[in-house]
Structure prediction request, 264 residues.
Amino acid sequence: MKKVIRGILFLLLLLGFCGYEGYQSRIQIKEVQIQKKHEEEKKEEQEEQKEEKIQVIDPDKPMIAITFDDGPGRYTKRLLKILEKYDAKATFFLVGNNIAKYPEEIKKMDALGCEYGNHTMSHADLTKLQKKDIKKQIDRTDAQLKKIVGKKTTLIRPPYGAVNKTLRETAEKPLILWSMDTLDWKKKDAKKVRNYIKKYVEDGEIILVHDIHKTTVDAMEKVIPELIKKGYQLVTVSELAKARGTTLKAGTKYFSFYPADNDR
Ligand code: NI
Prediction:
């Protein structure tokens, strides 16, 4: 009889233990499931945010590429705030010697989806240099940028717009010139620069301005929302080229991406 009671007790104990175990593991499974769900929700949220950041470019609507040369400088931060406010993109043709002084601005450009261009290390006239020195001017600028964002520039804007055969043969990136010269550096007048852009801007234009002048940033503050209101999409040079069906080639000069260029 004692044996039977002991046996029953043992069984009850075993059942109780199993039940407890099962209960515990059910809790654990539930916790894991909840955690997984949280993770999935978080992932979805992040992807949604990412999608929001990717600006959809409508190829049938007018678009322009505003390009800022000679910076970064002390007004670049303000300019980036303006770009951010209007969800506009631009291309920055950086002077290598200025890069290390403005790491935050450099990072912000990337965060806003702007494009990095190479304007040489010391704003050199590349047509006066030999191949190895041209390479040095470009590569050293890229090295400066890489230190901050781990990226290289994708385009070259030769200072003074000076291009020769040696440069075309040496350049490992497309050579981006411009179709609209605002002469902002000479005018140093926000109103004049703003009015000039508004008057002459065309679909597919590459606009040349300089973010090292306060007056230029002042002009941007007004003209960027005005251009957007007119229906222009403010995109990077590479985005503009792509939207117009152009594959950019190293050592080739580009001045604009007018829609008519496709029909020529
Ligand atoms: Ni320049």
In short: The beta strands are 63-69, 91-94, 115-118, 155-156, 175-176, 180-181, 206-210, 233-234, 253-254. The pocket of nickel (II) ion is lined by residues 69-70, 119, 123, 159 (CB under 6 Å). The chain has a mean pLDDT of 90.
